[in-house]
Amino acid sequence: DIVMTQSPDSLAVSLGERATINCKSSQSLLYGPNNKSYLAWYQQKPGQPPKLIIYWASSRESGVPDRFSGSGSGTDFTLTISSLQAEDVAVYYCHQYYSIFPTFGQGTRLEIK
Amino acid sequence: QVQLMQSGAEVKRPGSSVKVSCKASEGTFNSNSISWVRQAPGQGLEWMGRIIPIFDRTVYAQKFQGRVTFTADESTSTSYMELRSLTSEDTAVYFCTKVRGTAVSSPGMDIDTWGQGTLVIVSS
Predict the structure, then answer these.
(1) I need a labelling partner for B117 at 20 to 30 A (CA). Which of A50, B10, B22, B101 fits?
(2) Model confidence band, residue B25 (pLDDT cutoffs 50, 70, 90)
């Protein structure tokens, strides 16, 4: 299985500041024929199911605020929240869907400093 | 927008089975797959497997192979997850999810919709 490792495990950021979460895969998620990385990011708030925010490593899902952005390719990826809002407090998961057996990172808990 | 409505919480005895249902919006199964993901209390997300209704194909995570069965009823747009030989380690919230597309091999497609989750408690 492809192992997804997120860093840090938890993060505290002041309101209005930038938050950055990293995700590393044990194998490349880049598919040569279409040059896309099969990596998604999900946001999960307490008591709720996860919500898709980024797919193809950098495509923002419809309705997601533009302060959320994804970057990276191959094995190294980043989720950035440009200006943290109170409603962004959540656990964030990266997810590879390249493999026939998809896997998730362990999650990063984002809090307000 | 596609919605996934799951059945209610269950309390089961060790060694028994549980069957969770997931009703999707009409037409969902025509061009999408359903994956099942679980989350133990306070833990992360664990992919259990996928069913592609229009091909009647299933893929199970090795960890659950032989103990879980996914089915789908296209006439009612409902998918089912049955997990057998339950232990306390199976206590978790079980989510059905919609996967964009019907890929049967690598590379796959992302999950864009989640059900509300079904809490399964296994306790004697």
Answers:
(1) B101
(2) confident
From the candidates A9, A97, A106, which should be mutated to test the interface with B, based on the most B CB atoms within 10 A?
A: A97
Q: Is the pLDDT of residue B17 over 90?
A: yes
Determine the 3-state secondary structure of B29 from DSSP. Answer: helix
**Whether the Cβ atoms of residue B120 and residue B90 lie closer than 8 Å to each other:** yes
Residues paired with residue B114 on neighbouring β-strands, in sequence order = B97
In sequence order, the 6+-apart residues with CB closer than 8 A to the CB of B95 are A49, A50, B6, B36, B37, B38, B39, B114, B115, B117, B118
Q: How far apart are CA A111 and CA A92, in angstroms?
A: 11
Mutate which of B110, B114, B118, B119 to test chain A, going by most A C-beta atoms within 10 A?
Answer: B110
Number of helical (H) and strand (E) elements in chain A, helices listed first: 0, 13
pLDDT digits (tens, 9 = 90+) for A43-73: 999 999 999 999 999 999 999 999 999 999 9
